[in-house]
From TrEMBL, chains A, B:
It holds the Pfam family HxlR. This is Winged helix-turn-helix transcriptional regulator. Residues 13-111 form the HTH hxlR-type domain. Keywords: DNA-binding, Transcription, Transcription regulation. Gene3D superfamilies: Winged helix-like DNA-binding domain superfamily/Winged helix DNA-binding domain. Coiled coil: none annotated. InterPro entries: HTH_HxlR, WH-like_DNA-bd_sf, WH_DNA-bd_sf. PANTHER family: TRANSCRIPTIONAL REGULATOR, MARR FAMILY (PTHR33204). SUPFAM superfamilies: Winged helix' DNA-binding domain (SSF46785).
DNA sequence: CTCCTTAGTTACATTCATGTGCCTACGTCA
DNA sequence: TGACGTAGGCACATGAATGTAACTAAGGAG
């Protein structure tokens, strides 16, 4: 997300605010992985084969700026950086977990839709 | 969202699936309003001053296709169309409500950050 | 002395999402 | 007879989001 430059849906809608933080193509998944454990940069790349180096950096920076994750740089060589949820980021866990559960259910729902085909309606 | 044409983050991540449905600039807010009550098309436009006619149509169509909302057209004149959550869409309520609550808390958090400024870190 | 690794950065290109403006059908109201 | 309101559709334009490729620093391994 983070595309609010084009204007907000309604003024001050908290749902919109939340989606600003965790929406977008990658952030949800990033947070999902960080929920389990602290991760290094390339470790996350391996967890998310689809993401490019650049995008991962950008998304992590935004999450950091929003105070959701913490970035710990170790001045060693080769470089070592660890990402983890902040205490505030931990408060996102219920949302992410709900989203995971719902996502599972949705996939199940999709299969059913293929059977229903016609008599849908609620 | 619905920008997965460029590929998925990880294969089969339920969080990603969920964000496909409710992510994007408008869908969260649309669902937020439909959680409270059935709405007509122009009624929603009034609730979300920022959205254009075209985008509202597009988003509603996608939500309908995903089986989350129901579109009831009354063959009267002037046209009347009512949008409501399907039973399946109702299952999204916990997520939307969590997002609303978190959004509220986040705004509160931001104010604090302005004070902390330096000694942040978790 | 060359290559490997990590965690980036930068410039450039493209694709997707979203926005704008104009058009319609029909019945009602003035 | 003409304007109004609803729920859109369509063509076109723009900008945001994302992708690709090449580059870097520093120490260790060979």
């Amino acid at each position: 997300m983070r595309n609010r430059k084009a204007g907000y849906a309604c003024k001050h809608c908290p749902v919109e605010t939340t989606l600003d933080i965790i929406g977008g193509k990658w952030k949800g998944v990033i947070l999902y992985h960080l929920m389990n454990k602290t991760c290094r940069f390339n470790e996350m790349r391996r967890l998310m084969p689809g993401i490019s180096q650049r995008m991962l950096t950008l998304q992590l920076r935004e999450l950091e700026k929003d105070g959701v994750i913490h970035r710990e740089v170790y001045p060693v060589v080769p470089p070592k950086t660890e990402y983890s949820l902040t205490a505030f980021g931990e408060t996102l866990k219920p949302i992410i977990q709900e989203m995971k559960r719902w996502g599972d259910r949705y996939e199940h729902h999709q299969e059913q839709q293929l059977e229903d085909v016609d008599q849908n309606k609620a």
